[in-house]
Design brief:
The longest helix is centred in the last third of the chain and has 12 residues. The protein has one domain. It has a five-stranded parallel sheet with strand order 2-1-4-3-5. It starts with 17 loop residues before the first strand and ends with a helix. Helix 4 runs antiparallel to helix 5. The chain is 36% helix and 9% strand. The chain is an alpha/beta fold and 191 residues long.
Length: 191
């Protein structure tokens, strides 16, 4: 029996807006952020400018973990990542421009604990490259169907989602930052 046309099918929700600030510190050929940009999967924004409303800014030094509580903000303002060198970030202790007027604006969130599978940091805890970080954020924000296509074509990409599937699923189910912290303790031990 055919539909009378009176019931509407739900409109698919638009993909999350993914933003990037390129610090230019990595080797151009190894830079996953530049590749994401070339492939049209992210939009470049200048330092300090992401528009309004502000995005969720992925910051490894933020105290609050990304959780389901950030979904609405991410759907309105997007998710922003700063593509910079881990070596320089560790020595600097913050993003490029921290403390000055070009620091990215938005709600700062750290990713929960995950394992890197990229060739430069394979097996290291929490040393994700740009595409791993964005893919994890998209997944945790309740859009696992967008995470796979985002990371597709990168060395270690499919493996990243498989290695971290249990963790990503637990974090995605966490409604609040405290729930994410509880999941981290359950998955990785500690107090």
């Amino acid at each position: 029996m055919r539909s009378s046309g009176s019931t509407r099918s739900p409109r698919p929700r638009p993909a999350l807006r993914l933003l990037i600030v390129l610090a230019g510190e990595d080797h151009p050929k190894a830079c996953t952020g530049r590749r994401l940009l070339r492939w049209g999967r992210v939009q470049e924004v200048p330092r300090g400018g992401a528009g309004s409303p502000g995005p969720v800014v992925l910051d490894p030094h933020a105290s609050t973990p990304l959780s389901g509580a950030d979904r609405e903000l991410a759907e309105r303002g997007g998710v922003l990542v700063v593509d910079c060198s881990w070596n320089r970030l560790a020595s600097r202790g913050s993003f490029p421009g921290a403390g000055s007027g070009d620091r990215p604006r938005g709600a700062r969130r750290r990713l929960p604990i995950l394992i890197a599978t990229n060739p430069q940091h394979y097996g290291r805890v929490a040393e994700l490259n740009t595409v791993e970080a964005l893919s994890a954020a998209v997944y945790i924000l309740g859009r696992p169907e967008e995470a796979g296509p985002l990371i597709a074509g990168f060395r270690g990409g499919d493996e990243f989602l498989e290695v971290n599937r249990t963790r990503l699923d637990r974090y995605r189910q966490a409604a609040l930052p405290a729930d994410v912290a509880d999941a981290e303790r359950a998955l990785f031990g500690g107090t």
